[in-house]
Amino acid sequence: MQIIDNFFDTTYFKELQSFFLDQPTRIPWFFVPTMNKEHSQDNTMSYFEHLVYQDHPNSDFYKFLEPVVDLFQMKELIRIKCNCYTATEKLVKHPPHKDYDFTHKGAIISINNCDGYTLLQDGSKVNSVANRVLFFDPSEMHSSTNCTNQKARFNINVNYF
Q1: Are 105 and 135 in contact (CB under 8 A)?
Q2: Of 78, 79, 118, 149, which has the fewest CB atoms closer than 10 Å, so is most exposed?
Q3: pLDDT of residue 78
């Protein structure tokens, strides 16, 4: 695990943040009725996602995220998806999951400051701080949360080799 604050230069990150916070209709959000495949029967938790890349670009937003691909110095991109976890009165830790069953690299880019976090298998809790990137092995169990102190918790999940 590695955490890097202020990962992107200020100009690029402000543009990135604007897509999510100032102009939210620029990203089409799709409702996901279950939190993850390990808990597909639990219909009490849901979220919104926008799949940017999986096997090929799936969104016009991919061009805007190309600097991410370049900065991560990856050999091969597996997936990029944007997540929107809406706020509730109580902070909810989602069930643990693996992004994929094979070892690979991953990053979670936090778009906004909020009281949400990512909980890793070893018990490390990584708070959502704008322009923070968490690098980790997403084939290990981890959990996300929603938030209570913003309208939503926004992040970008990148899986790669």
Answers
A1: yes
A2: 149
A3: 97
Q: List the CATH code of the domain at 2-160.
A: 2.60.120.620
Which DSSP string corresponds to 43-97?
-S--EEEEEEEESSB-STHHHHHHHHHHHTT-S-EEEEEEEEEE--SS--BPPPB
Q: Phi first, then psi: what are they for 54, rounded to 5°?
A: -160, 110
Please state, in angstroms and rounded to a whole number, the distance separating the CA atoms of residues 127 and 115.
Answer: 7
Residue 142 contacts residue 118 (beta carbons within 8 Å): yes
Rounded-to-10 torsion of CA 94, 101, 2, 91: 0
Distance (Å, rounded) from C-alpha 124 to C-alpha 66? 29
pLDDT at 39 > cutoff 70 = no
Residue at 120: amino acid letter: L
Q: Map out the domains of the chain as residue ranges.
A: 2-160
Query: Is the pLDDT assigned to residue 44 strictly greater than 70?
Result: no
Measured between alpha carbons, how far is 109 from 159 in angstroms, rounded to an integer?
11
Give the Å distances, CA to CA, from 60 to 1, 42, 50, 110: 30, 32, 11, 20
